[in-house]
């Protein structure tokens, strides 16, 4: 079906990789100010956010409340560091505000709240994002809008029963203007994902979602999957993203406990060097 | 003889959660659903959802008139609230229904974070609040006011009768943010006069006595409070009645003014004696240094068993004779 959506038919993959690199650089800069953060997840999801905000999403940073905008919902509020990076890079925030990340009185708290420009929902209480995305998609459909809803959530959130309720709801209501982005990075607070959530893609398919599975750090694969998810065929869309926590900085990838990373003053310069070497 | 007005097809709610002391009262069938359906004609931004409780929450008149704006999410209360929040965040006013026990105990975090924290226009009509059926603790939301008053930026309303419920159904559309309404369903009695006006956040004096005894009540217990005042009058005691439909935000000034005009108080609610209306009245009076003897008519702490509604209400002390005793004897 022809689409009226705004993304170009072909993606400038090289430019998007540069954007992703810039997001990682911004995240590391924020981490330096605070000395800690959910940096591994942020580095892992950077490619997806770059693909969304610089290619796939129809949005206007000058008018963040535009009713015709595509919505991006970050369910994993603790990925805030990645969101603030992309919101700054896209023009929702000034870059000089980023060092306030996680500090008292900041608009950029450690977990996302919808008071920050460009943040659509309160994330962080995990398992609440996808249901709200289904509701938004229903509401936009009622209005005849061709805006779409993109909802990121994590493999860890597949532990939450409410996520499965929302998966069934999305399929029941046939919200093909909704794209679920399932960040399967294999980690949660206590370490590796322990509950038997795999095979994720097969489960989503069985639940009625038009599902693709890609290397979430492969920009070409990401943009191809996003393009395929524009089809309006009565089925909600899902992209299972296999991401590597810490992607771009091998020393962080190698950390045995990557859920919450502390970056010492003596480590920061070395991490930045690794980031440049691996771009 | 009772007379009932309303759509004939909505007799389905009979059997569970109907009010029992309506035999000699005028009643209205499904006032919430019929009013919501009418409101939906005027306001296209209204949508409605249920979690497999359409038939039992009187919301089917809206579905029948506005099928494109009605969604049944199945037995999934967390998803009910999350989906409603999403609809609200793209400009809808999302009415949703389930039983009070399920939305409060199971979906609490979703009401707090997905809805109230964002001031989302979600209007929750919760069936069978308090002790309103004989199905045991699984279906008796005897602590719902206590739970929900703990959520910031949430409005809580406990309507008295069909007259008020109709007005509340309309009014909540214009109350900013998330609202929790204790739903009366099925054949709902008429207790209030035609000229009654529900004002959000304002307590309503319904009966003026001689200053000896003041009854403060909410929800359908206000109907019983009026009955109790009439019964007490036959014994020479003229009690006043203050109806408090909005539990949060609480009308502290109105309650204090009323309390200050009476020698002693009776507080009556369809809820445990702790954490609900009596606690709110007590807090307000204590903070103001206004002390009066008070009898709290409400439920004991505990989980209640199955049984007939009459048996449970008499056993746990919320029936009409209990209020009369509190008014007449002060115990």
UniProtKB/TrEMBL annotation, chain A:
Glycoprotein found in the keyword field: no
Segments forming a coiled coil: none
Domain annotation Transketolase N-terminal: ranges: 20-269
InterPro entries reported in the protein's UniProt record: THDP-binding, Transketolase_N
Reported cofactor(s): thiamine diphosphate
Highest taxon, organism lineage: Bacteria
Sequence similarity: Belongs to the transketolase family.
Record-given protein name: Transketolase
TrEMBL record, chain B:
Name of the featured protein: Transketolase family protein
InterPro entries, sorted: PDH/Transketolase, THDP-binding, Transketo_C/PFOR_II, Transketolase-like_Pyr-bd, Transketolase_C
Segments forming domain Transketolase-like pyrimidine-binding: 26-190
SUPFAM superfamilies linked: Thiamin diphosphate-binding fold (THDP-binding), TK C-terminal domain-like
Pfam families to which the protein is assigned, alphabetical: Transket_pyr, Transketolase_C
